[in-house]
Amino acid sequence: MKRSIKYALLAAMVGAPALIHAQQEVMVSQYMFNGLFLNPAYAGSHSYYSTSMLHRAQWMNVEGAPRTSLFAVDGPVMDGKMGVGLSVVHDQIGVTRDFEVAGHYAYRMRVSGNSHLSLGLKAGLSLYSARLNELVYWDANDQVFQADLRNEPVGKFGFGIYWHDPNTYIGLSVPTIYAADGQISMNLDGPMGQHFTQHYYLHAGRMLPLGEFFDVKLSTMIKYQPEAPVQADVNANFLYKERFWFGAGYRTGDAVVAMLEYQITPQLRAGYAYDMSVSRLRTFTSGGHEIMLGLDLGRELIKVKTPRYF
Q: What is the pTM of this model?
């Protein structure tokens, strides 16, 4: 099967008009443990510094399927009145590559008791590449495919709102509210196009006790993009003896997800997620795998009596 047919088939299966528009924002399954990947207002929401590393291989056995690697670190400054963070993301899908480094800033306000409201900003630089010469296309004179895109710089800016107390959180974010992608848009979408578009994320969760040894975290995320169907995630993760997480989730129209996380030490945690596709892609792929490693740093950790819930 020719490359172009494979990519068109892949795009059609995920409900996208074209592969290059199919999945612009990073998608991970363990976002409920790695909030900075989703919302810049999450920065500094703990009293210590937190780091996360994650790698995701989506749609195994499908050529051109997404592969994503992420690193993030965030923590409080100014006695917790502000939070700062840094994220590094390498995302590839089909013939495209996107390497992004972004800074995150959050202004935190105490609302009442132990609850806080944060307003966050994200600013980053992305290097975008597309190996267009690997595609098979029908119009040999089409100017779009005459030259590859190599490390085209794109400035990206995002915004988020995040409220939380020790057991509950709710947030709204637009990771890319504006992208300075003029050169890419001109090459791929024409003079009136905009390649990177806004994606809106509403996410929430709550921790509930179930007994002496068990707690459960219920979480959800609703994703909206004007040119695609609304997608929702619903998850339940159980915590056993404040050390071992296990749970499952459902992503509408896409996958059932199984998740495990182990708190190795008070500072170190490791997680794994397996996505089993429920879309038409299930006949082409054995699923997706995601591994995560987190390290928390700082003297404030010794005051924390329970593992981080989110």
A: 0.85
